Amino acid sequence: MKGKHIVLGITGGIAAYKAAALVRLFVKAGAEVQVIMTPNAREFITPVTLSTLSGKPVITEFFTANTGEWHSHVDLGLWADAFVVAPATASTIAKMANGVADNMLVTSYLSTRAQVFVAPAMDFDMMQHPTTTRNIATLRADGCRIIEPAEGELASHLVGKGRMEEPENIFREIDDFFNLTAGMKGTKLLITAGPTYEKIDPVRFIGNYSSGKMGYAIANEAAARGADVVLVSGPVGDSLQVHPGVKLVKVESAVQMLEAAAEAFQAADIAILSAAVADYRPAREYDRKIKREKDGIESLELVKNPDIAATLGASKHPGQILVGFALETDHELDNAAEKLRRKNLDMIVLNSLRDKGAGFGVTTNKVSLIYADGRERTDFPLKTKTEVAADILDAIATMKP
Ligand code: C5P
Q1: What percent of the chain has pLDDT over 90?
Q2: Calculated CA dihedral for residues 363, 365, 371, 377, nearest 10 degrees
């Protein structure tokens, strides 16, 4: 935490008084804190308290009224090593999720490249409302870490989930994050993601339903932790975001993916192969569209594609960690364990197509991690793919190559 730059966004909720304790914890640990308050937050706690504790003038407006000095949200966003919103009201969460940049806090949020932490605080019913649930899910999908509110008595005297997590726990979560990032900084990671398309003719291909979401989530999480990431991606939709620290290499076929992955693997410390690579490709690729009447083709001859995981596994040198995925419909554990051995992997992430919410296309996943070093397998509950990505990277951090 020492020397880290924390932007602390405070919004207008009763829990704003707890933000003072949070500033103290950061400052005591040696961090520099810049407080940004929303205009409403000033109704709950005074800027004087926060500027005294942080040792820096609090920012609320885009301009200082008497001098006309402009506060650069871009500079603030880039200055931050962590961007923390605590407490985060339903309204600010909604603005963040939708890019409504009508105050300094949300504008700076949109400009930051730092890891963002959001600690919601609101009444039980507001917390449960489908709008809030949807907005929080959007923030998670955008890579924010949500520091879940605790259960207990709320300002309304209702009892339920909605109390902002205690400052000590928020502090610990951010401190843990910095420790994790320190562990990953400079680590070279190769990740494969998405499907492969195997060309039949200029307009047709053999493919699969993989969306690439899991692999992109791992790449983004690893980059947020400071790793150097090469993401070799098959064809995925344009909607998947990549962290600025990720080098994206786009490929189409399994053969192209092998070529790009093999090259990046030479320098990699860790490779995580989440791509759903087509097992076969057409033996022949037509350079013009196949015509039903003229060509009269009734079947396609296929040839086997290279197994990227097994190829990298065979060339793995000491010190490299290789992680694969297994998506199974039956005999899940046996099949996954067999793949772990055959492909010379150090860990395999098993997701079963039988589990609701796991697998292709969806934003959630339910995985088990199976290790080659003989330790007990870990089973995780259903989580977002961003959370699963964090679990996978945490597990890798505990592994010795
Ligand atoms: O054998 P299966 O396709 O189930 O193995 C899944 C694992 O192997 C995944 O990690 C996947 O990315 C990888 N794989 C590969 N190249 C292939 C087939 C699978 O890298 N041709």
Answers
A1: 71
A2: 160
In this prediction, what percent of the chain has a pLDDT beyond 70?
A: 97
Could you tell me the pTM of the whole model?
0.73
Instruction: Encode 126-165: b = buried (16+ Cβ within 10 Å), e = exposed.
Output: bbeeeebeebbeebbbebbbbbebeeeebeeeeebebbbb
Query: Which residue in 64, 104, 60, 108 sits closest to 83, CA to CA?
Result: 108
CA 133 to ligand 1 centroid distance, Å: 35
Q: Looking at residues 196-213, what average pLDDT do you find?
A: 95
Tally Cβ neighbours within 10 Å of residue 173.
16
Query: Is the CB of residue 227 less than 8 Å from the CB of residue 185?
Result: yes
- Using CA positions, which residue lies closest to atom 2 of ligand 1? 326
Lowest mean pLDDT among 94-98, 144-148, 294-298: 294-298
Residue 141's pLDDT band (cuts 50, 70, 90):
confident
Over 80: is that where the pLDDT of 283 sits? yes
- Measured from the CB, is residue 350 less than 6 Å from ligand 1? no
Residue bearing the CA closest to ligand 1, atom 1: 339
pLDDT recorded at residue 154: 78
- Ligand 1 center to residue 5 CA distance, Å? 41
Report which protein residue has its CA nearest ligand 1's atom 13: 309
Q: Higher confidence at residue 385 or residue 251?
A: 251
CA of 310 to the centre of ligand 1 (A): 8
Q: Whose CA is nearest to atom 9 of ligand 1?
A: 325
Across 155-227, the runs of DSSP E, i.e. the strands, are 159-163, 188-193, 198-201, 204-206
Cβ–ligand 1 distance for 336 under 6 Å, the answer no
Active site residues: 208
Q: Is the pLDDT of residue 295 over 90?
A: no
Q: Do 44 and 16 touch, CB atoms closer than 8 A?
A: yes
In whole angstroms, give the CA distance from residue 217 to residue 143. Answer: 8
Kindly state if the Cβ of 307 falls inside 6 Å of ligand 1: yes
Residue matched to tokens 């200029």: 202
Please check whether residue 116 is in contact with residue 83, taking contact to mean a CB–CB distance below 8 angstroms. yes
Task: Tell me the C-alpha distance between 167 and 321, whole Å.
Answer: 37
- Evaluate if residue 364 carries a pLDDT over 90: no
Confidence (pLDDT) at 369? 96
Q: How far is the CA of 381 from the centre of ligand 1 (A)?
A: 24
